[in-house]
Amino acid sequence: MARKVYCENTSCKHHKSGDVCDTTVKIGSNGKCKSFEKGFVYYFHRVWDELGNSNYIDFVKINRDDDLRIGIFMVCKVYGISFSEMEWGLCRILMFKESEKGEPLHYKDIVAREMNHEEFDKLFRDFQNGILPGVTHEKPKKDSQPFGWLSPMGEFTEGDFAEHEEVAERIIEKSGFGEEYEDWLMSNGEGVTCRDFLSEVKGYCLMHNPAGHGGYIVSNVKPLTKKQKEFLYEYFTDIGDRFKAEQYVE
To answer: How many angstroms separate the CA atoms of 20 and 7, rounded?
Structure first.
């Protein structure tokens, strides 16, 4: 006599209304179901699980989890929201927001919003056809990028870890900023550096990491120019960091 199997795992592709499973159930020696396949709502659940009771997700988790990145895309499309990023040194988090200046949203704030059924249906059709957003089999063009200085005109000068001051001095000399730099030194007193001059006066930004490894920090004093943003977009796109790259889209 056939027996029905009831399963409450709504993240599974085989879960049907009434908690019914539509496939042959295989239970492993550890007691776990071996028939599980990721369903459409699985990607939404990945986001809810990471949000928990907070209003942010750590980028360490995002960078390591393709499913979470897909879920973030789907949540934004279906609920009509966007996200912003915040950084403190090497700590980087993502927060869902209704608008650029809005308050960070918790899980309950997001699901209380009206869904965009047109977007939901489109994503679901794509899922049924084996298409997932943002998934590509292409490898990033590069594994890493060099550190260095970027001029307002988008010209990059490489400078390795712990060489930023030395490289800044060479840029000042090569670009003919020497006399202006000397005048600036006279008016600002002791304690200022070549890198301060490039950042504060000339509008350069610096790609660096005080730890020497494990990520990239973009430091700028003046607002980034269009050419700097274009360079940074390509800089991070080339190493597959789409979230970082999109910070610099005009």
So the answer is: 6
Round to whole Å and give the CA distance between 45 and 19. 17
Q: Tell me the helices (H) and strands (E) count for the chain, helix number first.
A: 10, 9
How far is 211 from 193, CA to CA, in rounded Å? Answer: 20
Compute the residue count for the chain. Answer: 250
The verdict on pTM exceeding 0.85 is no
CB 187 within 8 A of CB 196: no
pLDDT in tens, 165-192: 999 999 999 999 999 999 999 998 778 8
Residue recorded with tokens 């360490």: 60
Contact yes or no for 158/215 (Cβ under 8 A) = no
CA distance 184 to 180: 6
Question: Rounded to an integer, what distance in angstroms lies between the CA atom of residue 109 and that of residue 99?
Answer: 13
- DSSP element (H, E) containing 205: strand 205-208
